Amino acid sequence: MGFRISELKPQFFKENPNSQIWNSHFHLDDQQKYLICAPSGKGKSSFFNMLAAINMDYSGRIEYEGILLKDVSTDQLSKFRFLEWSLVFQNLAVFNNLSLAENLNIRGHSEDCMELLDQLGLKDKLDQNVGHLSYGERQRLAIIKSLNRPYNFLIMDEPFSHLDTELKRKALQLIEKDVEMKNASLIIFDLENDPHYDGFQKLML
Amino acid sequence: MNIKAIILPKISFQSKLIFSTLTLLFSTIITFVIFAFLTEFYTQKLLEKENHLYFSLSKSIGIGNTILGRTSSFNEEEIKGLKEQAFCSELRFIKKAKFKCIAGFFEQKQFSSEIILESIPNSMMDGPVYRFYWEEGQDEVPIIISAEFLQLYNFVYAPIAGLPPVSIENLSMIPIEISLIANGKRKSMKAEIIGLTDRFSGLYVPESFLNWANTYFTGSASSRRDKAVLKVNPAYISEFEDYVISEALIVNEENLRMGKTASLIYPLSAGLLLIACVFIILSVSNFWLHWKWLLERQKENIQILYFNGFHPKYIAKQTFKYLIPIPGLAFVLSILFGILIWKILQPYTLSVLNLDYAALPVFAIALVSSVYTLIFLSIYFALWRFCRAIYI
Questions:
Q1: Which of A174, A112, A186, A106 is closest to A140 using CA atoms?
Q2: Is A95 touching B (CB cutoff 8 A)?
Q3: What ipTM was estimated for this complex?
Q4: What is the pTM of this model?
């Protein structure tokens, strides 16, 4: 069933009148790939937080699996976040005081994602404290962390902002492969549409 | 999964110091409470058990009495005067045997001694009063002796004579024969020491037995009113003391001292208990605030755990697991300290209150366990509330 969104309107900023998101009805369905595109300051992170049931300052409805997110119970929300949604935040939301391996062990085992670590150049940094890694390295960790767990929806807020083109390509390839393998949906928020996102349904914010 | 590293990444030295201090504070306070409670409890028990204080009272015999031929018995006017006093809840008289009594062990006749039998109404007597009855025709006479006699035997006579100390249980198993002799008559009977009295210093038989025996040997059951037993309301202990002095009466001073101590200990221990409770509340708040401060610092990390699907209940449980060893340690320490302090203070409290303390550590442990259960539950509840409040 995925997400059902209708008449969504943010409370604390003026929405873009040409948006395909605000004040409209649309679905974010299972086993689909979506790119939500907008320049800075147009409310990408706000919408991301609304989908993740972190931000409730809006009018309109967001339903997930028929459950209105504004009324969701703690038990239900924890279950969604634990089993159904995998989130990559713009600020990464990793534990800077733990090592890279410890971060991966929070919701899985670092041994299970050695290939991902290898491909994204983090294999030799397993024991390093995340606080000592570069922002780009932490961003790659956040991507690997989000893949190294079960999910139905992988929702990523500007996941490649600090990666070069080559790394972005590699990372996106790995993400798409994992999403297909899990028969899941992928929602990426990004500043602009680029050729890497061929095959994605695009929604302008 | 290393949740501890996320919730409590690095507890600084200062934090550890605060923890240790709190632990000690907890232990000390709980110990303090135990002691205050015990004092309170036993004072209470004393006042409940001896809701009134009992005194044996007699007139002092001076040269004046001898010269003027005054009697040592209480006359009607004096009895009336005593009964009118506010401190007097009950006034009775000790009856004395008007015959000679020789007590000895059945098997070793050479160990015999003349004793003076007295009786006090059962309403004034302590010890196993439910067994303190005698009916005519009954061959065995129950006797209650002063607890002081047993102490005197165990701590003074037995060590000198090289005899083993005895308990009241041992004593009741010794077969005793009493020979009652007067006016050419002699009667032998069996006797059993059934218990001890803390109130009076003598050897006591049931009043019914003494009435019968006095009648049997002298034809009259009545005896002189030389010694009164008085039930005194502890609230009027000072008035009683003043009266005793003004009327030149002789009273068993041990009981008087005990009554005064009890009336002093009660408000003192109640005050200590109150202070201890305030300290407990303060230290638990301090302990919790310290943890809350630590958790507040880790709020963002805890929220990342929430984004990963962890339930606030799970986080509260995990935090509780790391937090609980501290009051847990304080719990163990306070019980150990409590028992230690009790052991050190036991002889003093024993002599002051003159009570059986066998159940004391059980009460202390029960009290501390209850207090800690309450603390643990409150901490868990507060943790759950905190984790729930920062859930997004």
A1: A174
A2: yes
A3: 0.92
A4: 0.62
